[in-house]
Amino acid sequence: EAGVVQSPRYKIIEKKQPVAFWCNPISGHNTLYWYLQNLGQGPELLIRYENEEAVDDSQLPKDRFSAERLKGVDSTLKIQPAELGDSAVYLCASSLDGWGLAGGNEQFFGPGTRLTVL
Amino acid sequence: QKEVEQNSGPLSVPEGAIASLNCTYSDRVSQSFFWYRQYSGKSPELIMSIYSNGDKEDGRFTAQLNKASQYVSLLIRDSQPSDSATYLCAVNCPMDSSYKLIFGSGTRLLVRP
């Protein structure tokens, strides 16, 4: 079974430029998450989707970040314009659902996109 | 502020020894607990999940949960150099009508050959 797919794996841009990250979750997983991970820290949630609905975007800096999950499968996270402080690893994860206690809420991560803003 | 605390390490153990990794969490109503392994430059990989008090064993790994003490641990038996990585503890914390997976900052494990 294929895991979570992300692209690109690496991205280097100049500040003030736009950037977009793409994620394809594990087949059949209804819940999709975008996380940000800084060096030496654990991942921090940016946004969570249940199917195509964003149900938790409280940590998403909405002045410059946006996300979408059309048709409840693939998702795109965009930053416009990028700032120096956005340099980090952007991780996508998916789970069967968000609420189950029998393993349905186990989250599986993609390889991540390492963003460097110069 | 919901918190998950881990000792950053590094925890250094000789090959073949038992490595014990610990985690405490602040939210008493949390129900789901996870351990992820993260190699340098790679993404987190789920290795254990635990939902009930007590021990859960999977191969060389044992997760232990004590909800009364708000404590979860991971034991790695017969540690191998390939186990050298950062281990992230994650706790699913209910928030209003939603929930969020809160991660600790991780404990770096070094297994000496």
Structure description:
The complex is a heterodimer of chains A (118) and B (113). Chain A contains no helices and eleven strands. Chain A is mainly β and 118 residues long. In chain A, the strands form two sheets. In chain A, strands 2, 4, 5, 6, 9, 10 and 11 form a seven-stranded mixed beta sheet that branches. In chain A, a hairpin with a 6-residue loop joins strand 4 (31-37) and strand 5 (44-50). Chain A is globular, with a radius of gyration of 14 Å. Chain A starts with a strand and ends with a strand. By secondary structure, chain B is mainly β. Chain B is 0% helix and 58% strand. Chain B has no helices and eleven strands. In chain B, strands 2, 4, 5, 9, 10 and 11 form a six-stranded mixed beta sheet that branches. A five-stranded antiparallel beta sheet of chain B has the order 1-3-8-7-6, with no helix packed on it. The model of chain B has no long low-confidence stretch (mean pLDDT 94). Chain A binds chain B through residues 33, 40-45, 48, 55-56, 89, 91, 98-99, 101-103, 105-112, and chain B through 4, 8, 31-32, 34, 36, 42-46, 49, 51, 88, 90, 92, 98-101, 103-106.
Structural class, from helix and strand content of chain B? mainly beta
Show unreliable segments of chain B.
none
Oligomeric state as shown: heterodimer
Largest sheet composition of chain A: 7 strands, mixed
* Helix-and-strand structural type of chain A: mainly beta
The parts of chain A where pLDDT drops under 50 for at least 5 residues are: none
Q: How many strand units of chain B?
A: 11
Q: Please give the radius of gyration of chain B in angstroms.
A: 14 Å
* Overall pLDDT confidence of chain A: 93
Order of helices and strands of chain A: EEEEEEEEEEE
Shape of chain B: globular
Helix content of chain B: under 10%
Cα radius of gyration of chain A in angstroms: 14 Å
Write the H/E string of chain B, N to C: EEEEEEEEEEE
Largest sheet of chain B: 6 strands, mixed
Overall 3D geometry of chain A?
globular
Termini Cα gap of chain A: 37 Å
